[in-house]
Description:
The chain has 462 residues and is an alpha/beta fold. It contains 17 helices and twelve strands. Helix 3 (91-107) crosses helix 17 and helix 6 (197-216) packs across helix 10 (255-266).
Amino acid sequence: xxxxxxxxxxxxxxxxxxxxxxxxxxxxxxxxxxxxxxxxxxxxxxxxxxxxxxxxxxxxxxxxxxxxxxxxxxxxxxxxxxxxxxxxxxxxxxxxxxxxxxxxxxxxxxxxxxxxxxxxxxxxxxxxxxxxxxxxxxxxxxxxxxxxxxxxxxxxxxxxxxxxxxxxxxxxxxxxxxxxxxxxxxxxxxxxxxxxxxxxxxxxxxxxxxxxxxxxxxxxxxxxxxxxxxxxxxxxxxxxxxxxxxxxxxxxxxxxxxxxxxxxxxxxxxxxxxxxxxxxxxxxxxxxxxxxxxxxxxxxxxxxxxxxxxxxxxxxxxxxxxxxxxxxxxxxxxxxxxxxxxxxxxxxxxxxxxxxxxxxxxxxxxxxxxxxxxxxxxxxxxxxxxxxxxxxxxxxxxxxxxxxxxxxxxxxxxxxxxxxxxxxxxxxxxxxxxxxxxxxxxxxxxxxxxxxxxxxxxxxxx
Length: 462
Ligand code: NAD
């Protein structure tokens, strides 16, 4: 995965090198040298911090918990990115996720750089007291490199408001008298978090689909008769899914997947039927459409898991059949929202994917090989750095609100969020439908262009 992000960044740089309108006065060997510098800067993180947190377990034993903070790039602002609590976290994965954060912020013009953290644990194996100690120790070990104007963590898989509240409180203890509200985002509202932050990523994920198929397409009828774009395979796919009932499947029913599914269920402008959702255990399927609000309530009351058996489904009054965990990926649907883990669609299963539109709620859920296979078939992939940026955008609003100690209403937050995502979509879609490249390469090109221009202006390309 790490190399794939680097590869697409390099492709964007190669395209930019040939673009004579980009830094036109930079020519010949100087231009080549500047682009070599860009490649070197964007392909490596600025800092890799690693520690073994010393935790006294409830048993009295001491455990050393491996933890990372990887700061990829801060050209556009302080480092920003979540902390993942997962047993399979490793340095390559965290570096890749930090790189994606740099690109995501550049793409959406959020004034932050990119970073990511990781703690190698399965949080389900630890008591609340042990998790509290892990959070405190993380801040203690990395306190010199974190802060509202240095590096601002947020939740990621396995962490949430509770962990951010604990971490911010420890940051405040270590740095008395200094500003602390902006040191962590994704906090609870009572601790200075933003209204709407919890739903932001899932809402943004669904917004990108709605905007593509409805808001954008309804105003673009001129293209349908334009000979030059008529044969564009992606435009054909979008047109074939406009103004007609859609069947959706959602992989992952956590923070991102459940909110995206609920948005789709409640949407009045697209005619959606969510026929499948899945989690770490299995897939739930109903050809006539699942009762998403009932499933949201169920997971809230059952530790986040979907019903595990037909007995549990019956007891909850939910009509669905159980399928295996991976079934969700290859069902006969129009749209597949991926909101679980990375590398879910790969070269071996891409051929079986029947959805014509894929939305990446998770980071990097489609491998590079699968991306090419699906792209060749005209499948539209709304990529992670475009689709799942709602969380970091509202984190930015939370950071601003913490600075100003002025708080926005939920309505204001969602209006600002959708406005920002719409602006990004509108800057990409005309070129996407007018050209031959994937939406992912358009997103990377935009992000790399912004970073390159800033690095050049800041005198970093020598
Ligand atoms: P979460 O922990 O709340 O939910 C994860 C979901 O995926 C759960 O339903 C879990 O059961 C399911 N899952 C786990 N392993 C699975 C497997 N092998 N197959 C199918 N389902 C599986 O996490 P989240 O916050 O919803 O994040 C999901 C993804 O979105 C992650 O990749 C994360 O990095 C990304 N993301 C999250 C945010 C955010 O604000 N939460 C922002 C950007 C990106």
